[in-house]
Design brief:
Layout: E1 3-12, H1 18-29, E2 32-38, E3 41-48, H2 50-62, E4 69-78, H3 80-83, E5 90-92, H4 112-118, H5 162-168, E6 190-194, E7 199-201, H6 207-215, E8 220-223, E9 228-233, H7 237-247, E10 255-258, H8 261-265, H9 272-278, E11 285-289, E12 304-308, H10 313-318, E13 328-333, H11 345-351, E14 358-362, E15 374-378, E16 381-386, E17 396-397, E18 405-407, E19 417-420, E20 423-426, H12 436-452, E21 459-463, H13 469-481, E22 485-488, H14 490-501, E23 508-518, E24 524-532, E25 537-543, E26 546-547, H15 553-556, H16 559-568, H17 574-577, H18 597-606, E27 612-615, H19 616-627, H20 638-646, H21 654-658, E28 667-670, E29 673-676, H22 679-690, H23 695-717, E30 724-727, H24 734-746, E31 751-752, H25 764-778
Parallel strand pairs: 2-5, 8-14, 10-12, 11-15, 18-21, 21-22, 23-30, 24-27, 25-29, 30-31
Antiparallel strand pairs: 1-3, 1-4, 2-3, 6-7, 6-14, 8-9, 9-13, 10-13, 11-12, 15-16, 17-20, 18-19, 19-20, 23-24, 24-25, 26-27, 28-29
Helix pairs in contact: 1-2, 14-25, 16-18, 16-19, 19-20, 22-23, 23-24
């Protein structure tokens, strides 16, 4: 009883070796037929006895290739006439382009078999920096179009040699139909130049010279998979200081690339879960706990340091275990300040000639820029700070239909999201939309996603803020394409993002703490307690608004916020509070600019150029300017990060959470919003500071007070005991997130944090997408 089946497989089935897998499975089970990629996934027509077909389908479902992600399997019984003429065995046919589009794979690290070949002297790919197979290698970074075939990638310009073509056609080879397959005879090559572009090593293997230069303290620009890094020896403090000076990055934490898991364990605690993530195909930068907070202070401050393992053959060769050279490298994105990471060798030589001493480059083009992912392993899952390489462009599944919606995100840590059926395709890391270079990257990536995944938007959604580049881009697109545009309040989108991240469709209670976002009342929000869902929300709680003297200037010159907090808490002497001369007796932090304080006091007294903000991020800025003595931040979020890093321990102890807060928690009602009064908190901080209490203990107690404040607000404002979602960039703070989560859970609340997208503004497009989709279904 010979039967015929058409099999359609939907999901991530291209670029993962699925057709070769089907071919081998068919050979093993005695099936005849064919398979091909389509724009919608993979299609096969099979013939065999019922038992053979059953074994074939079972193997397909239960033992797919390691990188595959099956979403749906469709089978259809065919007549012999419908099946058409079939080969005696099984064959892979030319791809067929259909209206629907499939998924695209993310770039992945070399598999164990490829790593073994890379360091086997007798192998023809020994020390070849571009080896790959169906189980690993570049995918998204080389992809031009779908379906995923060599002719639709940048590898089209590298015709396979006879040996590679033989592997490509050999069903027993793991390079059977591996689209980026190549070798030293036919594939891309790496080369080393000096800052003028002249060869610094004319050999076929530039890596020994590159390792020697790094050992000598040189800075190298290194072209990798999805962009270019600046690299130096992480254990050479002088080299790192020179890199910081040249890049204008005096204090922002830097990421490390380590030779091995053992070398990571020498400097960090590594749990089994963290080890699994470090060695997983995605290879994110993982924020690991240092063995001592004092380790590598020139790399990062505080308890954690960002570390990754090599994620391409090129990086493996740069950190080869059996060769002389550094075992830990700084790997930081090579870009001009505020601009996207560079991808072209010519651009690197032009723009980095004053920064890098030498350039380790290659001639494989980067089709799609993709910066490193950054994450924390927390409570058994990843918590993303940045979702990019290794994860993008894989979609995030949603609780609802989101087809046709295009969400434009926010401005800082910009992202976009495109909806197709119940999948959200979120952009890789883009950066802050503060200049034309980043806006161009944003536009190009949005066009690429729309083309690759076959999404033609029918509904646009963006932030409420009228001056965000993303808002202006959405408005222009709506005008040009004649599409409806919905503008969504920033913190509502944050709340719904966390709900969608956890597939929660019902109403929730949102605690959304971040820097700033425009409220629907025209005020600046940033420490919000909301109730609602994707259809509507209500603001029920917040902070007492604080004044920001000088407006946007205060975000960088954080001493201005500290001064405003002192003035609001009535701590300043009377003469000072009205703009009098600075009294030498008043103990302002030494780093504050004494000459500017009277003028800013005048602004505060007259309430001129002092917009108000109920912002948790700005509260952290102001408090750290007091206890840490900092006047100016050198990067966004520096003060909150340093305040968190001051704490003696990374998470609060049970005893600390059970103890009462160090100041009274005072609330007041204003226009239906229950506000936390920050003045008693600031007075308590200042009193302890003047009494000589160590800054580390004040930082701890300040955050513990906020944990208890969140609990009290939830008790008062969430009588229905709705599930609680935590979102906003402040919830990248481990101490605060852990403390609030534990207090709420102990009180019986269900608490949800972000797992699949970042809590910061990068994840906001997912919330916008869900809100627009919900609006569309109720219209």
């Amino acid at each position: 009883m010979r039967r015929f089946l058409r099999v359609r497989i939907l999901g991530l089935v291209q670029g993962v070796g699925f057709r070769p897998f089907l071919h081998r499975l068919a050979e093993r089970t005695g099936i005849s037929g064919w398979a091909r990629n389509t724009s919608g996934g993979l299609e096969a027509v099979c013939a065999g006895e019922p038992g053979q077909l059953e074994a074939f389908l079972s193997g397909l479902l239960h033992n797919p290739p390691p990188l595959a992600q099956l979403r749906e399997l469709q089978t259809e019984e065919l007549s012999p006439e419908q099946a058409g003429p079939l080969p005696e065995g099984f064959e892979i046919r030319k791809s067929r382009i259909l209206p629907r589009t499939t998924f695209a794979g993310a770039d992945t690290a070399p598999c164990p078999a490829c790593r073994k070949e890379l360091f086997s002297p007798g192998d023809r790919r020994f020390h070849y920096p571009f080896l790959n197979c169906t189980d690993c290698g570049p995918r998204y970074s080389i992809l031009l179009e779908l379906p995923y075939d060599r002719s639709r990638t940048v590898m089209e310009r590298f015709p396979m040699c006879p040996d590679c073509r033989r592997e490509y056609g050999d069903i027993r080879s793991r390079r059977y139909h591996a689209q980026p397959n190549c070798c030293p005879s036919c594939g891309p090559r790496a080369f080393l130049t000096d800052a003028s572009g002249q060869p610094a090593d004319r050999s076929a293997d530039p890596f020994p010279t590159a390792r020697r230069l790094l050992s000598e303290g040189k800075i190298l620009a290194v072209k990798g998979t999805g962009g270019i890094h600046l690299a130096c020896d992480a254990e050479n403090e002088a080299a790192v200081a020179r890199l910081r000076e040249k890049k204008g990055r005096p204090s922002r934490p830097l990421a490390l690339m380590a030779q091995s898991l053992d070398s990571i364990r020498e400097i960090c605690f590594v749990s089994d879960g963290e080890a699994a993530q470090l060695t997983a195909p995605a290879r994110p930068i993982l924020l690991l706990r240092k063995r001592s907070p004092e380790l590598f202070p020139w790399i990062s401050f505080g308890h954690r340091i960002g570390v990754m393992l090599p994620y391409s053959p090129l990086h493996l060769l740069l950190l080869a275990p059996d060769c002389p050279g550094p075992r830990l490298l700084v790997m930081t994105s090579a870009n001009e300040k505020g601009a996207p990471v560079l991808t072209k060798s010519s651009e690197a030589l032009e723009k980095l000639s004053g920064t890098a001493d030498f350039f380790l480059l290659h001639n494989r083009p980067i089709a799609n820029r993709c910066d490193d992912s950054v994450a924390l392993w927390q409570n058994g899952s990843l918590s993303f700070f940045r979702r990019s390489r290794g994860f993008a462009p894989l979609p995030v599944s949603c609780s609802r239909e989101v087809s046709g919606v295009c969400a434009f995100g926010a401005e800082q840590k910009a992202s976009f999201a495109l909806g197709r059926e119940k999948d959200a395709f979120l952009s890789p890391h883009i950066g802050d939309l503060k200049n034309m270079e980043t806006l161009d990257h944003y536009r190009q990536a949005l066009q690429t996603f729309g083309r690759l995944f076959g999404i033609r938007p029918t509904q646009l959604v963006c932030d409420l803020h009228p001056d965000y580049f993303s808002t202006l881009e959405a408005q222009e697109t709506a005008r040009r394409e004649k599409l409806p545009l919905l503008q969504v309040q920033h913190h509502w989108a944050h709340m719904v993002s966390c709900m969608e991240d956890n597939l929660l469709s019902g109403p929730a209670f949102g605690i959304v703490w971040d820097g700033t976002g425009l409220g629907d009342d025209g005020a600046v929000w940033g420490a919000e307690f909301l109730t609602g869902d994707a259809r509507s929300f209500l603001r029920v709680g917040s902070l007492r608004p604080m004044r920001l003297p000088g407006g946007d200037l205060a975000a960088a010159q954080i001493w201005r916020i500290g001064l405003g907090l002192l003035e609001d808490a009535q701590i300043l002497p009377g003469a000072l509070s009205t703009g009098g001369a600075v009294s030498g007796a008043f103990p302002f932090p030494d780093a504050w600019p004494a000459g500017q304080i009277p003028a800013v006091c005048t602004l505060l007294s007259a309430k001129i150029a002092c917009p108000k903000a109920s912002s948790m991020g700005r509260l952290f800025d102001g408090v750290f300017s007091l206890i840490g003595g900092m006047a100016n931040g050198s990067f966004d979020g520096e003060a909150p990060q340093r305040l968190e890093a001051l704490c003696p321990e990374e998470t609060p102890s049970r005893e600390e959470l059970e103890a009462p807060p160090f100041c009274p928690l005072v609330f007041y009602e204003e226009n239906g919003v229950r506000r936390f009064d920050t003045r008693p908190l600031i007075r308590a901080v200042w009193t302890r500071l003047r009494c000589g209490v160590p800054a580390a203990l004040i930082a701890r107690d300040f955050q513990l007070a906020l944990c208890h404040m969140a609990l009290e607000q939830c008790r008062s404002l969430n009588p229905e005991r709705l599930p609680v979602v935590l979102s906003g960039g402040v919830f990248l703070n481990v101490f605060l997130t852990d403390g609030i989560r534990r207090l709420l859970q102990k009180d019986g609340y269900r608490v949800f944090c972000h797992r699949r997208v970042s809590a910061c503004d990068e994840g906001i497009s997912l919330g916008q997408l869900a809100i627009a989709a919900a609006r569309d279904t109720t219209a």
